[in-house]
Amino acid sequence: MTDLALEARGIVAGYVPELPILRDVHLQAARGRVTVIIGPNGAGKSTLIKAIAGLVPVSAGTVMLGDQDITNPRPDTMGAAGVAYVPQTDNIFRTLTIRQNLELVLRNAGADRAARLDALFGQFPPLAAKQKEKAGALSGGQRQFLAVAMALAIRPSVILMDEPSAGLAPKAAQEVLGMARALTEDGVTIILVEQNVRQALRIADHCFILADGQNQVDGPAADLMNDPIVGQIYLGGKRVAPA
Ligand SMILES: Nc1ncnc2c1ncn2[C@@H]1O[C@H](COP(=O)(O)OP(=O)(O)OP(=O)(O)O)[C@@H](O)[C@H]1O
Ligand SMILES: [Mg+2]
């Protein structure tokens, strides 16, 4: 049986109680793997990762982190549980330097702080080179690297990322997705929302397709790469009849 780092079951969630956006959604993320969530605009992808992160209330269903029920956590308890969330936008402090951004998230690291900062700079050399520059001056791709470096400050076992490659040129998008993939080499579990479907499927292990607040299909990313079902869901936005 697959070792699941995180599993969402029967999730009903939304922004107002009488209007659920997600209806009975499930997601499984294998430990140390990349799981990608794709689907048309408005499918509920961001809502799903926000629901997992405790930023959108879950009215039914459960989110399990291994054996631990983390349904509707307080956002500040997510860090303690080892789950980091990287929002799509506004995920860094632009007016602070790169170093200050990292110092901020390491403020509770105590005596380890300097060593942890060095380790993060070692992991992301381009950030080290620009550490005294304002984060707002970074390129779009480097900003995503900084956002992920900040997420790593809590030493997460699971990282939720919402469209880290959005708005990036293909090469930068590739670098960001490659970095997400590389994090799994340290055993981190990545759950990623993506619009760059082809690029995402290339670096992912497993893929869930959502449309209209519901699961459509899921399977190994390599299998879905050439499956016409992906295009059908994007074009039609409709549920595919079971084979
Ligand atoms: N803060 C909010 N308040 C009310 N409704 C919202 C809010 N955010 C999103 N929605 C609605 O929830 C539905 C799903 O939105 P969501 O942002 O989860 O989709 P998505 O799949 O991430 O889309 P995109 O690809 O455009 O990012 C949409 O109908 C959207 O209008
Ligand atoms: Mg979204």
A few lines on this structure:
The protein has 243 residues and is of the alpha/beta class. It has helices spanning 45-53, 75-81, 98-105, 113-123, 125-129, 140-151, 170-183, 197-203, 221-224, 228-236; strands at residues 4-13, 22-30, 34-38, 58-65, 68-69, 83-86, 158-162, 189-193, 206-211, 214-220.
Could you name the ranges where pLDDT drops below 50 across 5 or more consecutive residues? 239-243
Order of strands in the sheet with the most strands?
6-7-8-3-9-10
**SS-based class:** alpha/beta
Could you tell me the radius of gyration in angstroms? 18 Å
State the CATH topology of the domain at 4-88 and 159-236: Rossmann fold
Work out the helix count.
10
Shape, per Cα inertia axes: globular
Helix content: 25-40%
CATH superfamily grouping of the domain at 4-88 and 159-236 = P-loop containing nucleotide triphosphate hydrolases
Describe the structure.
The chain has 243 residues and is of the alpha/beta class. The chain has a domain at 4-88 and 159-236: Rossmann fold (3-Layer(aba) Sandwich). The chain contains ten helices and ten strands. The strands form two sheets. A six-stranded mixed beta sheet has the order 6-7-8-3-9-10, with helices on both faces. Strand 4 (58-65) and strand 5 form a beta hairpin. Helix 3 (98-105) packs parallel to helix 6 and helix 6 runs parallel beside helix 7. The radius of gyration is 18 Å and the shape is globular. Mean pLDDT is 92; it is low at 239-243. It binds adenosine-5'-triphosphate (ATP) and magnesium ion (MG).
